[in-house]
Design brief:
heterodimer; A: 310 residues; alpha/beta; TIM Barrel; eight-stranded parallel β-sheet; two-stranded antiparallel sheet; globular; B: 228 residues; mainly alpha; 67% helix; MFS transporter permease (chain B); membrane (chain B)
Chain lengths: 310, 228
């Protein structure tokens, strides 16, 4: 590990230690003056990543339906126009990888793409073939991030991914879980394995990760991708029946989705959130959450309490 | 595969819109298969009753062919790319088609009173529902006519019609032939429930009705014995 990474990690941990802090005082967090979204550094390299990415579960699994693919291309265009970068997918998501690849080709492979997918099979040998298939479907010679999906055969796949990283065939490696599954085992992997990223479920209603996993990620210098920011839809459907609280204006939110996303990405240990949508207007709304004021620790506590009381 | 760590929602990685669009694209893609399938179903229904009794071998063979088509074409080639369990569903449908062809196609059901249900009414009503009414339920969900699911090419009406045909026979292997159709009723009902389709309960209700009709003579027979 180079010295700059160690220094960046130390500064990050030091910042965590003096929390509560406002979002922008965290080292490496940036808001560019030209209207780009906030970004946070990937702890292992310092490379900035926009705090709002894009998931593809359900939304991009539309097969070779040309009508639906047109709409998804528009969604991706809106994502990149708003400064988006990370797209996360998986072989488990049906045709999502193929659709993402097709839409990226139509957009002439936009700059700023950070491609993240997973390996999802119980066979280590099959995992190698699956990764090659993913690269073909995305239309990329090399993916940025490869993750072991839902801890499935994680030891076998991590060996493969580590070797690929050493050979420069992938830039980052990681492991994922969702719905709060197997957190104890995940923590063990985070403590013992040299991974760059961990992906887990974290949102204003599902905060189990705050007690162990997020502090551990900060301590170990592991980037955190928060999945299911809206609990797959029901969370935002539930809260949007209520008017936005007064404090939403303080953090420049005009929609509940932005409140929910800002809560997630303002946690010091979270690198980015990956909401999924099949609508351009929702994508624009989500990406607006990567701009404007962010809640500090005190407001985050109030946000969680107010949403729990709804 | 660590299946136990997955919930029902994890196994349905598409939206209601995508599911409905699947049938629209499928019906157009395999055209005129939906019309041929429906014609086969109506033929099976109308040829089942002959002047000299029930002739069920041909209807069963037609229905078995439809299971093979739905398994191979719909489940494996159209549905499975969207959802990985589709491969297993396809294998199940192929297996059911082969079992029906072998078990019921070989047995002489034509005009044999011992092989035909005493009261064909419930089976016929279920058949009429599957062939004529069930496809129209899609309209209640706002689907276009060319996206409707019909007997012979789509799984749900094919399965319900099969339950209707099974109610027309008395066969020692009827329970055996009911397992996959009943399982599909639960799978389809669960899928539609997760997708929020208002008519999700139709398939589980069809299964419950089938089980009720099959069980009723035994229940009423025991009661009569007790009363006497």
């Amino acid at each position: 590990m180079d010295r700059s990474c160690v220094s960046s990690r130390r500064a990050f941990l030091a910042a965590l230690a003096v929390a509560p802090l406002s979002f922008l005082t965290l080292p490496g967090n940036s808001r560019a003056v030209d209207g780009q979204p906030y970004s946070k550094p990937i702890p292992s390299t310092g490379e900035p990543l926009p705090v709002v990415g894009m998931g593809t579960w359900i939304t991009f699994n539309v097969g070779d339906d040309p009508v639906a693919q047109d709409v998804r291309t528009d969604v991706l265009r809106a994502f990149f126009d708003a400064g988006g970068g990370m797209i996360d997918s998986s072989p488990m998501y049906g045709t999502a990888e193929a659709v993402v690849g097709s839409c990226l080709a139509r957009l002439d492979r936009p700059e700023g793409l950070f491609s993240a997918t997973k390996v999802w099979t119980s066979s280590t040998a099959e995992g190698v073939e699956q990764i090659a298939t993913s690269e073909r479907l995305w239309g990329l010679p090399r993916l940025d991030l490869l993750q072991v999906h839902n801890l499935l055969n994680w030891s076998g796949h991590l060996e493969t991914l580590s070797a690929m990283k050493a050979d420069g065939e992938v830039r980052y490696i990681g492991i994922t879980t969702s719905h709060g599954r197997r957190h104890a085992e995940l923590a063990q992997i985070m403590e013992t394995q040299p991974i760059d990223f961990v992906q887990l479920t974290y949102n204003i209603a599902d905060r189990e990760a705050e007690t162990r996993l997020l502090p551990l990620a900060a301590e170990r210098g592991i980037a955190v991708i928060a999945n299911r920011p809206f609990q797959g839809g029901p969370l935002v459907d539930r809260v949007k029946r209520h008017p936005l609280p007064g404090w939403a204006r303080e953090i420049d939110c005009t929609a509940w989705s932005q409140v929910l996303l800002k809560f997630i990405v303002s946690h010091p240990a979270v690198t980015c959130a990956i909401p999924a949508t099949s609508r351009v207007d929702h994508m624009e709304e989500n990406m607006a959450a990567a701009r404007g004021a962010m809640p500090d620790a005190a407001l985050r506590r109030r946000m969680a309490a107010d949403v729990a009381a709804l | 595969m660590d299946l136990l760590s997955y919930s029902l929602v994890d196994l349905i990685p598409f939206s209601r819109e995508t599911y409905f669009r699947l049938f629209e694209r499928y019906n157009i893609g395999v055209w005129p298969a939906p019309i041929i399938g429906l014609a086969m179903g109506l033929t099976a229904l109308f040829t089942a009753r002959r002047a000299d009794g029930w002739v069920l071998r041909a209807p069963f063979l037609l229905t078995a062919a439809c299971w093979v088509w739905v398994g191979w074409v719909f489940q494996i080639h159209w549905y499975a790319p969207l959802s990985w369990p589709g491969i297993y569903f396809g294998i199940g449908f192929l297996l059911q088609g082969l079992m029906m062809a072998v078990v019921l196609g070989r047995r002489p059901l034509a005009g044999s009173p011992e092989g035909v249900a005493r009261d064909p009414g419930p089976g016929l009503w279920i058949l009429v529902f599957a062939l004529a009414l069930q496809p129209l339920l899609g309209l209640l969900s706002g689907r276009p006519w060319y996206g409707l699911e019909v007997f012979g090419s789509a799984p749900d009406p094919t399965v319900v019609a099969t339950l209707g045909f099974l109610l027309l026979v008395r066969h020692p292997l009827r329970w055996f032939l009911s397992i996959i159709p009943l399982a599909w009723c639960l799978i389809s009902g669960a899928t539609l429930w997760v997708l929020g389709v208002p008519t999700w309960s139709v398939m589980p209700l069809a299964a419950a009705l089938y089980l009720g009709v099959v069980a009723w003579p035994r229940v009423s027979g025991r009661r009569q014995l007790k009363d006497s």
